[in-house]
Every structure is written in C-alpha cells, then in structure tokens.
Amino acid sequence: MQWYLVAALLTGILTTLSQSNGKYKYDYATIPFLAELFKLSFSSFFLWKECQSSSPPRMTKEWRSIRLYLVPSVIYLIHNNVQFATLTYVDPSTYQIMGNLKIVTTGILFRLVLKRKLSNLQWMAVVLLAVGTTTSQVKGCGDAPCDSLFSAPFQGYMLGILSACLSALAGVYTEYLMKKNNDSLYWQNVQLYTFGVIFNMGWLIYGDFKAGFERGPWWQRLFNGYSITTWMVVFNLGSTGLLVSWLMKYSDNIVKVYSTSMAMLLTMVLSVYLFNVRATLQLFLGIVICIISLQMYFMPVNMLVELPQALPVTSK
Amino acid sequence: MQWYLVAALLTGILTTLSQSNGKYKYDYATIPFLAELFKLSFSSFFLWKECQSSSPPRMTKEWRSIRLYLVPSVIYLIHNNVQFATLTYVDPSTYQIMGNLKIVTTGILFRLVLKRKLSNLQWMAVVLLAVGTTTSQVKGCGDAPCDSLFSAPFQGYMLGILSACLSALAGVYTEYLMKKNNDSLYWQNVQLYTFGVIFNMGWLIYGDFKAGFERGPWWQRLFNGYSITTWMVVFNLGSTGLLVSWLMKYSDNIVKVYSTSMAMLLTMVLSVYLFNVRATLQLFLGIVICIISLQMYFMPVNMLVELPQALPVTSK
Fold first, then answer.
1. Which of A37, A156, A284, B87 could form a disulfide with A89 if both were Cys (CB 3.0 to 4.6 A apart)?
2. What's the average model confidence in pLDDT over A297-309?
3. Cα–Cα nearest to B24, from B14, B33, B9
4. pLDDT beyond 70 at B298
5. For residue B78, is it left (φ>0), alpha (ψ between -120 and 50) or beta?
6. Do B131 and A288 touch (CB under 8 A)?
7. What is the DSSP letter of A57?
8. To the nearest whole percent, how much of chain B has pLDDT over 90?
C-alpha cells in the first residue's frame, strides 16, 4: 500500500514537471494508451514466469469469464466522455471539487454492490474524508481566477455527480472481478489490460477520425514531443494502475480511496516546497480532518472508545 | 440547552443590527456592566422567591466560599486585556480564527482540572469541532481585505493561545464553582454577578480615569445613544450569561462549547438570508464537520459501531 502512496504522489508532481511553460508538447491522449501497453507487458512477463514455475497459476479461460474484463474499460470510456461534457459546463476547479464526491459514491457502491457493511462511524469517516479533501481545495483569499462554485448550469452538477458514480462503479466492479476467484493476479491483469489497450487504441483511432486524419495516423505521432519526463509520466501512470490492481485483489476500494486522498494532500504539501505554492489554512485543516477520518475508519473500536466490560455470556 | 442556542443565535444578529452604518452610537463598554446588573437583579428576584417558598434554598454563606466567586471575574478581566493586546498584533479575522482554539483548551482543562475523562473518539470530536468552526470562517476567493493568517508577529500567536487558555479556564472554573455544592443556582448566581457588577463598574471608572475624566463620569454617559436594539443587546447578553450559569451547574463546558459553535454556524446561515452575506462552500463544509463531531461526541457507542457480543463474564 505504501508503494501505491508513492506512485500516486509522483503522479501529480511528474505531470506538472512534464509541462513546458504550462503546456503539453506531446499529445496527452497517447499517455493512457502507452500506460496500458506497459501494464500489459509487465503482467504478461510475470504471468509467463509464473507459468514456468513449479506450481502453475490458476487461470480461468472460459470466454464467459474473460468477457467480463471489458466492463471496466467500457465504464472508463463512458466516464471520460462524461468528464469532457462536464468540463464544458463547469470550470476545472469546480470539477476537481465535485470529484471528491467519488469518495462517497465509492462507499455507497461498496455497500450496495460488494455488500460490505460499514458501521455508522465508518460512514461518518468516509464523509469526513470527502469533506477533508474538499476543504484542502477551497480557493482562498486572493486565489485567481475567482469563479463561483455555485453558479454553474444545473447540467454541470448532474454530470459531475454522474462522473463520480461512474468512477466508483469502475472501481467497485474491478474489485468484484479481482476477488471473484483465486486466479493469478497477473492473469487477471492480462485480461484487464488487453481490453484496456484495445479500447485506448480505438479511442486514438476515433480521435484521428474526428480530426479527419489531418494529422496523420496516431501511430506516427505517438512519440512526438516525448521527453524523459513524459516517459516517467507513462511509467508512473502504469505503475499506479498495477498497484491499484493489487489493492483491488488483496485490499479494497476504501483503502484505495484513502490512499489516493492522502497522496493528494501530500502532493499539495510537497508543492509548497517544490513549486513555491502558498501554504494555506484550508490545506492544514484538510489534513487534520483526513487524519481523523483515517483513525475513525481503521482504528480498532476498543482503542477509540471505552467498551462495556463484562457482558453476560447469554446476551444476543 | 435549546434556550441557550436561541440566545447565542440572537447575540450575533442583534449586535449587527444595533450598529448604525457599521458604527456603535453608544459606548460599547457599558453593555457588559448593564448585562451583569440585569443578571444580578434577575437572580436576586428569584432567590428572594425561593426564600419565600416552603423549602428554603441551600446557601453557603461563609466568606471562604463566597470569595471564590470573584475568580471568574478576575480571569475575565485579565482575558479582556490579553484580547486587546492580541488585537494590536493581529487583525480581527485572524483573532476570530484563533478563538476556535478555546474549544480545544476547554477540552484539555476539562480533563486536567475537572478530571472528566474523554475517550479517544471524543477527543477527535473536540478537535473536529474546532476544525469545523475554523473551516466555516476561512476567507474565500474574493473576500477583502486579504490579510495573511501566517504573517502576524510571533507575540500575536502567543497572546492568542493565552487568550484561548484564559477563556477555557474561566469556563472550567465556573463549572467547578457551580457543581461544588448543592447550593441554590440563584444564590450562586448572586455571588457571581455581584462580583461581576463590581469589576465592570471598576472597569468603567478606570476607563474614565484613563481618559482624564474628559467625558464626565461614566454614570452620566451610561445610556447615551441607546436605542431599542441596544437594550435588546443588553437583555440578550444577560440572558446568555444566565443560561451559561445553568449549563455550568446542570450540564458541562463541552455542551456549552458545542452549543456556542452550533449557534455561530446557524448565525452565519441566517446572515445569508437576513443580511445578504454570500453562501460559501466552506460554511457548508464546516456545518457537515460540526454535525459529525456532535454525533461522534454524544451518540451512544452501540449506535456508532458494532460492539462485540458475548464477552466472557470474567473478562477484565
């Protein structure tokens, strides 16, 4: 889990570093495709190694099971489109703040789809996590531009909520897939990322089609403007994805949501030192809220409260 | 407790209403004196009625006990001076934000002086309450003037912390006094407010002395510029004080601190409707945080978490 924190931490920093004068010299749409290719290659290699070992891994090969692994890619495709649509109605900072809703929608789908029960205290913790991350993102005195959060069109908010639901659905469904059976993690990854590569390739082709093939086919443009930092972004995005798979199989979506939020806060703190971003009161408050949320969710109950001592043996 | 909420709610609203063009036409220093006088009269009247009744109230009349009731007035005197001194180093909004520290210092002194134990979860709740109220007060995008919270002189922060400690000490000591014995609440109030009137009168005389008696004695100026609203401010301040006494005897400082915070948030919400103040995201976030804090502190444990069922009878 610590590795996921590091990877998520690097994501924000590397993406900022890879910009030149605030612009991307490379085609940003190529990044997810190459990341999926990297994840697929990585998983294929380790699956092959597992097959060479003395105890071959479990692999469910029926098409009936394999076809389920395209569902996350489909959901992400719809989600990306909803994301673009939302950004036509709201500005990026409003979109970022609405993005915190996916913490709550993940908790809700966690309960509804995966049937994992949360205590009332844990529900409060999940809400607090969303509130804490939002607090750290509140635009402070003097931050420009000063767009109002509450004056976007109604459709913008609806699409934002839909985006949060789709994000959560993708995560929860992936966890369902990974935990469905005892197949090798790498075999499950291979299925997942094969569909990921196919869908991303389709997306690049569609982008060419929409541009009327003016810029030539995507595979010719693929590495245009790539620097060392760009490759690090690809590598980092791929690594983050691999770690998420591992979390989905051996941990759960709530742990992932906490890790992502903590990494986001850490990134903001590091930005104060690395990129001279101004430290704000709301960042400090957000950190305190999220740390308390973390303890509320994960701390054993007997460390939180005084438990009643000698309950009768025959109590229900 | 609900009456305290109403009274505290009215305080902010009435004080704003009593201003004319943002200024006070009356001498604000006369308000606390008249409020103490009101509280003393009120308590004396009801004490007299209690003495007339068939079961006379308990009254501890030894000077050794009575003299303790001047301690809160002394602490408030020092606190007011520290408050003035702090405001020479920091601006009013920074002072308001530091004021939330008294929630935490109250909790600490509650534990140290009154020996009331808080579970870890309740400590988190107290911290969250302070964080929640602070969040609601964060200056948003476009709020002028844009003073930095972090650029005040070091002494300003030290004095702010001292102010929070003194506030907490006064509250905790008052609760200690009120719960020390089973004396009539009104008898305790009479002692408390007699010293309050004396100290406030002394403060007004001192104010005259410092001004070189240029404006004439305070009792001549006492009601200058008083309108109906000003009298409502006096009445409201007095009522709030009386309700705090009741809370100190029959409830505790933590309940008072929660009530004050909730009233403050409600005031801000009402200000959106009454005074056209802009609704902000941080106000909404602050309300959510404080409501969760309230539940964390006061909800019975079995409603918060799943308690383990059949513990052995002989467990320690």
1. A156
2. 85
3. B14
4. yes
5. alpha
6. yes
7. P
8. 51
> Based on the number of CB atoms within 10 Å of its own CB, is B120 exposed (0-12), middle (13-18) or buried (19 or more)?
middle
Give the residue from B133, B281, B314 with the most A CB atoms within 10 Å of its CB, the best one to mutate: B281
Range of the domain at B93: 2-16+29-51+74-299
Task: Answer whether residue B289 is part of any domain.
Answer: yes
SS3 string, B84-123, reads HHHHCCCCHHHHHHHHCHHHHHHHHHHHHCCCCCCCHHHH
C-alpha–C-alpha distance, residues A270 and A282, integer Å: 15
Distance from the A312 Cα atom to the nearest Cα atom in chain B, whole angstroms: 6
Cβ atoms of B27 and B221 within 8 Å: the answer is: yes
How far B95 CA lies from chain A's nearest CA (Å)? 14
Most confident of B23-27, B35-39, B57-61, B273-277: B35-39
- The answer to whether the CB atoms of A292 and B127 lie below 8 A apart is yes
In a domain, B139, yes or no: yes
Query: pLDDT value at position B41?
Result: 95
Residue in chain B nearest A305 by alpha carbon: B119
Query: How far is B269 from B282, CA to CA, in rounded Å?
Result: 12
A58 falls within a domain: no
Model confidence over B133-166: pLDDT tens digits?
Answer: 999 999 876 665 666 677 778 888 999 999 999 9
| Interval A175-195: pLDDT, tens | 999 999 889 999 999 999 999
Residue at B305 is within a domain: no
User: Choosing among A123, A131, A143, A288, which should be mutated to test the B contact, i.e. which has the most B CBs within 10 A?
Assistant: A131
pLDDT for position A316: 47
**CB neighbours of residue A276 within 10 Å:** 7
Question: Domain count of chain A?
Answer: 1
Q: What is the per-residue pLDDT for A47?
A: 93
Per-residue pLDDT, B316: 47
